[in-house]
Amino acid sequence: MKILLTGGVGFIGLKVAAKLHSQGHSLVALDSLLEQVHQDIEVEKAQFPGEIVVGDVSDASAWELLEPAGAIIHLAAETGTAQSMYETDRYRRVNVEGTRLAAEYAVKWNASLISLSSRAVYGEGFKNRGTTESDPHRPLSVYGETKSEGERVVADVTGGKIAATIIRPQNVIGPGQALHNPYTGVLAAFLARLREGKNLSVYGDGTATRDFIHVEDVADFIVWVLDHAPAISESPRIFNLGSGERITLDQLAQFSIDAVPGGSASVIEHVDVKRAGDIDHALADMSFAYSLGAPHAQWSARESIADFIQKSWETPGAKSEAWDTALEELTERGLAE
């Protein structure tokens, strides 16, 4: 089958593409190839096993360049929670209008649609349980709002017309994630500080919790969804996607220190910082997906973190000062205190 992946040359896209290519599918990527996202554009382009169309997912003229596909996997997005609070127009354009075009073309081509949303639609999670797909949307950031709006767009455009699935991933980690974008991913910040022999700065008291899932587990889940499209009458079907394992930010930092090749003398330092959009708890309740036979995560949090640290150790990335500068910028804008 011919499959279009928006954001196909990205962190998740390349992993999904590799698995689909091994199954014999014909692949096309629509990707803007922005430098903020891509560390080495030529290397990443060479890793995509198919045709690449360079274009903005929110630009209708880019979609006009594409030939019909049997399925669309919509991964392209702007993902910086704090950055979204002042880059509002860009985030709404890409995350809402880009999703609208993906949904409209899926209907036009009579293609199945898989659209990646985010756990950010839930806002603050729960300390004693995971969020379920039926929990209300209470986003705390523009990013979360745009993902929530994108879900409504998918439902409005595709309802009763095609098979559509919405996936809400938790924190996706693994080798290949951006190491030079200081607006996404605490692990990249930890990696930069560890490589410089610095201590790890954990915002708050370290008891906040997250659900980290390895990118390979995410790719396996997306491939499973493609093979188990819902009936049109049940679309869009919504799935949480996480490991179901809760760890604290202190554990995240310690697992990172423990994974340093050759060992590390770095220790954890707590910093009294609260950024706009930050939450205290996040955990996916995976009961619904598992009840339908979805694959369980194969990587534990510790294993996922070690895999990222060790395989990314020699990969060029931003210096730790980039995250310090980003925090200063947020503070100046009144988005951190």
Automatic annotation (TrEMBL):
SUPFAM superfamilies: NAD(P)-binding Rossmann-fold domains (SSF51735)
InterPro entries: Epimerase_deHydtase (IPR001509), Lipid_A_modif_metabolic_enz (IPR050177), NAD(P)-bd_dom_sf (IPR036291)
Domain of life: Bacteria
Record-annotated NAD-dependent epimerase/dehydratase domain positions: 3-242
PANTHER family, per database record: BIFUNCTIONAL POLYMYXIN RESISTANCE PROTEIN ARNA (PTHR43245), UDP-D-APIOSE_UDP-D-XYLOSE SYNTHASE 2 (PTHR43245:SF13)
Protein name: NAD(P)-dependent oxidoreductase
Species annotation: Rothia terrae
